[in-house]
Design a protein that fits this description.
Length: 231
């Protein structure tokens, strides 16, 4: 690893470009997601080796249901297979956290999510968060509903309270958001949490994203001067 890197505590990654990766090879889009899932698994290891405390991957957004059913099913299948792997990994140090509304997911997925979450809850290693049926706006709506359901008065509502009611409660602040594939948008990912994050946009397509790309993004982050609204 290059010297003088400031390692972010929490990195958010938008895994974009799977479809284009497949198209470039004349393959179906699902082939891109299969490769993207492999990259995701390797990336957790790169983050762990680098000393990152927490990494959040955007796997499926609240808007992704608009995709063809076959593609949605393929992504859910990959996610289900990963949960099977994760169940075998709960003896290891990683803690798994799932962000988003699980309600529309299948009963089988909901059950696997609960098992993996509970079995890894006390683990002290890297926190691997998977945002699935996640939307930043939905995250805020969900937080507001939970505050209102508790009959909390308006003058008690502050930023800290809202943060505590988001799916990311108890996670460190997001320091760095990486989006590969050349797009320069947040696409409803961690919109509250990323208020002071640094953004690094890269041209590499997600399935091709490697250790050197992560190091490049962290090097860029290290060069930025974070002032948090100060001078
Ligand atoms: C965006 O690329 C990618 C997705 C919407 C799905 C990401 C899913 C995975 C990487 C696999 C499943 C996840 C886990 C956690 C095992 P795109 O399809 O929008 O690419 P494009 O912009 O090139 O079309």
């Amino acid at each position: 690893m290059p010297e003088n890197l400031i390692v972010p505590r929490h990195i958010g990654i938008i895994m974009d470009g799977n479809g284009r990766w497949a198209k470039n090879r004349g393959l179906p889009r699902t082939a891109g997601h299969i490769q993207g899932a492999k990259t995701f698994k390797k990336c957790v290891g790169y983050c762990r080796d680098m000393g990152v405390e927490c990494v959040t991957f955007y796997a499926f957004s609240t808007e992704n249901w608009k995709r063809p059913k076959a593609e949605v099913d393929a992504i859910m299948k990959l996610f289900s297979q990963y949960l099977d792997d994760a169940m075998k990994m709960t003896e290891e140090d990683a803690k798994f956290v799932f962000l988003g509304d699980p309600e529309p997911l299948s009963d089988e997925l909901k059950k696997k999510i609960r098992i993996v979450t509970d079995a890894s809850a006390e683990n002290k290693g890297i926190v691997c968060c998977i945002a699935i049926n996640y939307g930043g706006r939905d995250d805020i709506v969900h937080a507001v509903r939970s505050i209102m359901n508790d009959n909390i008065s308006a003058d008690e509502v502050d930023e800290a309270l809202i943060s505590e009611r988001l799916y990311t409660k108890n996670l460190p602040e997001v320091d760095l958001i990486i989006r590969p594939s050349g797009e320069q948008r947040l696409s409803n990912f961690l919109i509250w949490q990323a208020a002071y994050a640094e953004y690094v946009f890269m041209d590499v397509l997600w399935p091709d994203f490697g250790k050197s790309d992560l190091e490049e993004a962290v090097a860029e982050y290290s060069r930025r001067n974070r002032r948090f609204g100060g001078i």
